[in-house]
Amino acid sequence: MKSQLAKQFIIYCFCLFSMLSFSQTELKNKIVDFTTLMPIESASIYIKNTTIGTVSNQDGKFVLQVSNELQLDTLIISSIGYKSFKIPVNEFDNTEEIYLEEDIAALDEIILIAENRPTTGNDIILKAIERLSENLPDSAYIQKGFLRHKERNSKEFKWLIESAITVYDSGYSSSSEDHLKINVDQVRKSYDLRDVDSIFSYYSYLKRYENNRKLKAKNLKRDTIKTSSLVKAIKWNDTRVNGLENLFKGKLNLVRNSNAAKALFGENILDKHQFKLDTVLVDNDRKIYKIQISDSKDFVGLDTDGIFNEGFKAQGWVYIYWDNYAIKKIEYELVAASDAQKSRSKTLFGTQLNHKLVMTYMEYNDKMYPNYIYYETPKLVNVGLKTSEKLTEEEKAKYYNEERFYYTIQEILFSDIIEDDQIIAEALLADWDSDIFAPRPYDKAFWKNYNILLESEEDEQLIKDLSKRASLFKQ
Question: How far apart are the first and last CA of the chain?
């Protein structure tokens, strides 16, 4: 029975995508600031009253697949602080760049009429946290999305995975640790050109599973370790540090997990953060608070198992709607602040910025659902010099700076939202697998009309370079 229901759910999903693929229109363009003529990054592009949408890349460009059934619906392009651009889908022109004009509400006027409303950044944030139970989904739902997970140093991509994913969430009131599920449905690209000559992951792996307290990384010799063992350790470390499970269930899912124990945006939020009201902007004709995040009396820590991920100060911005205190967007960074973390970050990563997070939300049926996630963090690989030749200090510095320091980026774009109880119940009977490494055959028909994040021009070139030098990762 379980197998039969699971198959029915899979058939439903394929039927859904098949129906969408019969007739699609591709909307593709660039969004530009009217005054500065600079591209607008992370603008929202979506069909009104649906969850179909995307965001613009760092060049201001986007691509969106829209079913021909929605030709008469309204396309909305919006970005916080700008007047929205609205047009029927069938009138959209792919050849004309889209210019957005600045739109700012006057802060002084807002404060004057703000009777019985919080007026400080701290109070507005506390009000928004109090309203999360009303503004976030309170029942189970499924979201379809696109994941791009890449790893690079300052010169080139070393790793790239693009996947279609499904996320099940039981609702804000329940624990994501116990109930949230993730499945990798399809793989679009999977290239791996990482050097397997770092033993730090292997050292951590052995410490974790063999509990050998006397083990030292310097005592491990690369030529005595099987490559397959190193690959296994690297995969384990990728999952431990940057896995999808951590991103959704961990502390950095600030809004969804604010009711968890020791949450960063939980009961003691002001012990580790301070918030200052900067101004009031406009987002798609709605007033929205822009609030600055700064450090407080305590350091921020992530409690990562086996890793010193403590001693940070927070900085960034939170955008909160004026009318219902719903959180629209969070830009959140953790910077090394304690002496121990500053030293560690400088030595291992070459940067003091350890975590950079951007999360935006879409409003659907009066609730705020995840729309876009960007997460960036440096990564220790320590590939080290393997030559007996004498090198100049300039050569050493070049190798050290360009090759040793890596960082990883995960981007997720969500589209379809499924709230049907029967479909959700059937889906939960299937086997869920969040392993982005698991080999899956490429399905050209599936990807033809699936909404993805458009690569930036720089990334597009780096991806081309990577694909020339790396074969499809099949291990």
Answer: 33
Identify the DSSP state of 472: B
Mean pLDDT lowest among 32-41, 53-62, 109-118, 185-194: 109-118
Token readout for 213 is 């307290």
pLDDT, tens digit (0-9, with 9 covering 90-100), for 121-134:
999 999 999 999 99
Beta strands in 285-442 (DSSP E): 286-295, 312-321, 327-336, 353-364, 367-380, 405-418
Q: Higher pLDDT residue, 178 or 131?
A: 131
Mean per-residue pLDDT for 231-252?
Answer: 84
Q: Across the beta sheet with 327-336, what order do the strands follow?
A: 104-105, 273-283, 286-295, 312-321, 327-336, 353-364, 367-380, 405-418, 141-152, 157-169, 181-192
DSSP run (H or E) holding 167: strand 157-169
List the domain boundaries for the chain: 2-102, 124-437+458-469
Please state the three-class secondary structure of 104-155 as a single string.
Answer: EECHHHHHHCCCCCCCCHHHHHHHHHHCHHHHCCCCCEEEEEEEEEEEECCC
CB atoms within 10 A of CB 59: 18
Q: Of 34-43, 422-431, 460-469, which gets the smallest average pLDDT?
A: 460-469
In our burial notation (b when 16+ CB lie closer than 10 A, e otherwise), range 178-205 reads eebbbbbbbbbbbbbbbebebbbbbbbb
8 Å CB contact between 466 and 156 = yes
Confidence bin at 1 (pLDDT 50/70/90) = very low
**Residue 236 has which token pair?**
């384990």
Closest by CA position to 152, among listed 474, 455, 475: 455
Digit-coded pLDDT (tens) for 23-66? 788 999 999 999 999 999 999 999 998 989 999 999 999 999 99
Phi, psi of 254 (to 5 degrees): -60, -45
Q: In this structure, are residues 319 and 291 in contact, taking their beta carbons and an 8 Å threshold?
A: yes
> Please, which pLDDT band fits residue 417 given cuts at 50, 70 and 90?
very high
CATH architecture designation of domain 2-102 = Sandwich (2.60)
**Residues 249 and 177: beta-carbon distance below 8 Å:** yes
Q: Which of 112, 101, 167, 103 is nearest to 140 (CA)?
A: 167
Tokens of 133: 């139970």
| Rounded Cα distance, 246 and 169, in Å | 14
